[in-house]
Write a sequence for this structure.
């Protein structure tokens, strides 16, 4: 039995256990990950922050000249001709998140509550299976589906639903569809977990007390599942704001998103300082949007709470976070 | 007003056996089932299309020219897509290993010894998760070039670049998953082992590790998947000669898509199905219910 | 057989040099073509039956890999396969849409790009040389260089072919779906009018800054390389504010991405790519237009970037493609004039389809202008970025 350093933070009983205990400070275990993040995340991002205050030397020199730091690149990135792109990115992301939520809510509820226990795992697995195919290939699949010369286009024309070849490819609507498709599993999973964790007893007691199914859902189930809803919305919204590949494949020139602006500075224009400034602006844009919506959400919750006559104590959450 | 067809007020302990609990087959439940089916069709539509088009004999994937195995033939003839898949798998395995090791250790630390430091670390993790992939990509490329200029020629190597880049996001994810799993488990088992005079290493390998194994496995699996799918960062930092599969597909998309892409995807899809089946079997044997698995993989509920 | 490797000493402004040398090489090309046909016919029996294997022309063993960074759909898969089999190597291709992307990749990698062969367009080569991004070529390792028509060698941007060898040359035009567009089109102004009218929202434009600006400038009979600020401003105003909203896609290869699927009605395209697209659609559905009053002449060249690892294989490849039979196979697929002596009669004899999209007569060539990497380059790139942003709506 060896005596090692005393733990940094000991749970109370340990102090009584004396020399039998030998803890290695567990917090040290996080150091490798910490170092990894510092070297390969913090440093590179700090580096491009540094570049964003410089300027392009010429078309052939990629390292910007930061001898006279200034905010000119930020002014350039704030060029009004880029505003539509940022606006469009926000629009597509918000609509995409909303659509994912609308589609996933009934679906996850059904899966978590209505489907018999023994089938749930299997069906959840089946839901995830498309997600295991490459992202690009899935989107190419949509290119094929939405193609004006394709099967769906001719079928819809035959059925008289549309009167000319399907005009969804190379449009913003096409991008919207692709985006909802690619991010739907990220909304389904947290919602499923949230609904699944909930004790059915709560729903049943609500019904026993006379609430209609709809009221049970909105006043019992949904509030308790709210953390899952929020997690899903964040999981979808944030990466979606930075995504631009779906827009390239399904939108062509239309529906181009902000990530493309950043990318093209690095792979065509070779203006790393401008690209860095745009990257910083993109992060800020996302954070500000999330913040604003968080505020709106809190305000809404306060309004709802003050209206509601009964506040449920969440007996199912297990402090696991 | 709808009530359940049970005999007593259900409590957690005395819930009637599952087969008596039947949701009523009325319009609301039927609607939910219909919605579920529609969503499944929506989710599988492009996959089915890709599988069908993998049998296209035309020069271009989008140009249906008749049924045949040309795509599969050209996959066998053309080494480039095979190479790309090989690169992706190898990078996936190694970056999953890196991410799992780093992330699991960090997750354990976060769960067992949260303190002042953990707030900062969690902030870091959150930052990694929140940063858009394009920003990571445009930050890493100049960084690797700079590191290479400073003499660390390892970062000119395509494999190193890919493995390191893919492991970043995955480490954060694994850390959260392991942390969620471990917080839910009491320390008493480990303390009991300590009381019984087990040395720290043995305590770790025989108590802690088995306890966190489902989370570690889920994390490793997730890391592997994320790495396989990683497109944006890979296309920026990759070095010619070590081209992962998504980058190969992406450059085909920009030039001309051939049916062999669909053929390779179909083959990978089949392999994935087999792999998932095996993993599910293993986890089932380990005693986790499917909800537990899902819960673990989503970090304990978000 | 002597090849004219002395530099063309002409006291003339750079733009004129382009025109003069172009006239010379076209005129010479026609003459050489006729003469070459006779030569080819006479020499037919002496040619080896199979294309020359690479081993004899490089001064070292051929490596196991060859990495090429090139334009899309720009090499015959059959030729690649043959080369791979004969030299027992793996040939990997990556593609880009514009010279700017090529330069961005090379500059960012600084010699570590991993590519062994790149395919820059002529005017970009001096800058590549200046920034040490390409190697000097040892022409002794390319014996088949003598097969190139001398009028396609020794270009103003690369005297003595120190850094590059001609791959092919072509022009820019457009093609349109006659089942959707009823107007007869023959000029760039027609293109703009139809794009903003009948075919609004169904138009694709090349994803290349100089070509994007060329639409307005050529329609107004202005040299597309103009550095005049007023003209560039007018170009910007028109492209961004008037044309952009009607554009469906910025696509450099509509022949593969768009025409076969019926996504566009009107496609701005390079001649070889348009040919691929037209051949993939119903016969007679798509029509190619070589528009006036001006257009482009571009020449793409093989060059070896600095830091290339598989140099012997690279030389072997360049040499392989200059063999007349292989060159004809290439031409049949890509639809561009490869510049090898006697290729036009050979193509005619072989029954290659749509020759009018590959070979051009003197009158057409006289309206073509070459590109330049001049001071307006940044402006052109900016205009194209803004146009893409404006088209996004």
């Amino acid at each position: 039995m060896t005596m090692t350093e005393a733990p940094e933070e000991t749970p109370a009983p340990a102090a009584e256990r004396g020399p039998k205990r030998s803890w290695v400070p567990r917090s040290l275990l996080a150091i490798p990950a910490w170092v990894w993040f510092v070297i390969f995340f913090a440093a590179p991002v700090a580096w491009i922050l540094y570049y964003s205050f410089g300027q392009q030397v010429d078309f052939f020199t990629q390292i910007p000249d930061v001898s006279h730091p200034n905010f000119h690149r930020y002014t350039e990135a704030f060029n009004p001709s880029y505003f539509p792109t940022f606006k469009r990115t926000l629009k597509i992301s918000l609509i995409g998140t909303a659509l994912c939520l609308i589609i996933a809510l009934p679906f996850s509820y059904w899966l978590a509550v209505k489907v018999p226990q023994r089938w749930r795992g299997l069906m959840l697995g089946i839901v995830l299976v498309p997600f295991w195919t490459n992202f690009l290939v899935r989107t190419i699949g949509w290119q094929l589906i939405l193609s004006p010369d394709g099967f769906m286009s001719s079928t819809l024309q035959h059925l008289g639903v549309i009167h000319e070849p399907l005009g969804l490819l190379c449009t913003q609507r096409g991008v919207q569809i692709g985006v909802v498709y690619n991010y739907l599993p990220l909304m389904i999973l947290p919602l499923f977990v949230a609904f699944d964790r909930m004790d059915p007893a709560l729903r049943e007691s609500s019904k026993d007390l006379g609430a209609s199914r709809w009221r049970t859902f909105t006043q019992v189930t949904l509030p308790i599942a709210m953390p899952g809803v929020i997690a899903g919305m964040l999981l979808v919204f944030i990466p979606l704001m930075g995504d631009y590949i779906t827009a390239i494949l399904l939108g062509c020139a239309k529906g181009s998103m902000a990530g493309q602006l950043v990318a093209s500075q690095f792979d065509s224009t070779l203006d790393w300082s401008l690209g860095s400034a745009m990257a910083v602006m993109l992060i800020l844009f996302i954070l500000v949007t999330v913040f604003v919506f968080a505020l709106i959400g809190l305000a809404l919750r306060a309004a709802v709470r003050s209206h509601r006559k009964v506040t449920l104590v969440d007996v199912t959450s297990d402090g696991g976070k | 007003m709808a009530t359940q067809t049970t005999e007593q007020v259900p409590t957690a302990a005395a819930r009637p056996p599952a087969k008596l609990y039947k949701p009523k087959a009325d319009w609301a439940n039927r609607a939910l089932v219909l919605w579920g089916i529609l969503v499944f069709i929506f989710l599988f539509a492009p996959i089915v299309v890709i599988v069908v088009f993998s049998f296209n004999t035309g020069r271009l994937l989008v140009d249906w020219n008749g049924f045949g195995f040309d795509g599969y033939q050209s996959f066998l003839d053309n080494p480039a897509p095979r190479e790309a898949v090989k690169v992706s798998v190898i990078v996936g395995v190694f970056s999953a290993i890196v991410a799992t090791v780093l992330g699991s250790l960090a997750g354990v630390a976060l769960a067992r010894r949260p303190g002042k430091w953990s707030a900062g670390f969690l902030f870091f993790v959150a930052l990694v998760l929140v940063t858009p992939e394009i920003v990571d990509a445009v930050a890493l490329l100049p960084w690797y070039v700079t590191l290479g200029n400073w003499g660390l020629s390892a970062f000119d190597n395509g494999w190193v670049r890919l493995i390191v880049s893919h492991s970043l996001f995955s480490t954060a994810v694994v850390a959260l998953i392991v942390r969620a799993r471990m917080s839910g488990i009491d320390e008493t088992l480990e303390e009991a082992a300590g009381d019984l005079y087990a040395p720290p290493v043995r305590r770790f390998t025989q108590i802690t590790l088995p306890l966190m194994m489902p989370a570690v496995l889920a994390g490793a699996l997730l890391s592997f998947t994320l790495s396989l799918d990683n497109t944006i960062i890979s296309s920026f930092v990759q070095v010619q000669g070590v081209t992962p599969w998504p980058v190969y597909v992406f450059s085909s998309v920009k030039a001309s898509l051939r049916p062999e892409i669909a053929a390779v995807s179909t083959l990978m899809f089949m392999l994935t199905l087999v792999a998932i089946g095996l993993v599910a079997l293993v986890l089932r044997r380990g005693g986790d219910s499917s909800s537990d698995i899902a819960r673990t993989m989503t970090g304990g509920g978000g | 057989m002597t090849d004219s490797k002395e530099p063309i000493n002409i006291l003339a402004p750079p733009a004129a040099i382009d025109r003069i040398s172009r006239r010379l090489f076209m005129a010479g090309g026609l003459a050489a073509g006729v003469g070459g046909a006779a030569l080819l016919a006479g020499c037919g029996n002496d040619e080896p039956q199979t294309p020359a294997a690479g081993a004899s022309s490089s001064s070292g063993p051929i490596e196991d890999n060859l990495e090429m960074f090139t334009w899309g759909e720009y090499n015959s898969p059959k030729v690649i396969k043959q080369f791979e089999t004969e030299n027992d190597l793996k040939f990997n291709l990556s593609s880009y849409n514009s010279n700017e992307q090529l330069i961005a990749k090379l500059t960012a990698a600084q010699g570590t790009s991993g590519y062994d062969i790149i395919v820059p367009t002529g005017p970009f080569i001096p800058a590549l040389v200046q920034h040490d991004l390409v190697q000097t070529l040892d022409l002794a390792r390319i014996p088949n260089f003598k097969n190139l028509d001398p009028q396609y060698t020794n270009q103003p941007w690369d005297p003595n072919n120190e850094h590059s060898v001609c791959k092919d040359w072509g022009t820019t035009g457009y093609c349109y779906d006659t089942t959707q567009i009823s107007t007869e089109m023959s000029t760039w102004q027609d293109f703009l009018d139809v794009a903003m009218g009948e075919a609004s929202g169904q138009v694709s434009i090349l994803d290349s800054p100089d070509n994007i600006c060329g639409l307005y400038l050529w329609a107004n009979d202005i040299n597309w390389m103009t550095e005049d600020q007023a003209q560039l401003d007018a170009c910007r105003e028109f492209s961004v504010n008037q044309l952009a909203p009607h554009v469906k896609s910025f696509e450099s290869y509509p022949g593969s991405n768009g025409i076969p699927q019926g996504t566009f009605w009107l496609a701005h395209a390079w001649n070889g790519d348009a040919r691929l697209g037209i051949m993939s659609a119903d016969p007679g559905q798509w029509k190619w237009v070589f528009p006036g009053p001006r257009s482009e002449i571009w020449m793409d060249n093989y060059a070896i970037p600095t830091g290339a690892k598989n140099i012997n294989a690279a030389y072997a490849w360049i040499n392989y493609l200059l063999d007349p039979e292989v060159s004809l196979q290439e031409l049949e697929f890509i639809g561009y004039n490869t510049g090898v002596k006697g290729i036009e009669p050979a193509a005619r004899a072989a029954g290659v389809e749509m020759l009018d999209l590959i070979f051009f007569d003197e009158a057409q060539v006289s309206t073509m202008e070459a590109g330049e990497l001049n001071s307006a380059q940044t402006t052109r790139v900016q205009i194209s970025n803004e146009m893409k942003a404006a088209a996004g709506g």
Q: What stands out?
A: Confidence is low (pLDDT under 50) at residues 1-57 of chain C. The longest strand of chain C covers residues 165-177. Chain C has two domains: 14-42+51-169+298-368, 172-297+369-391.
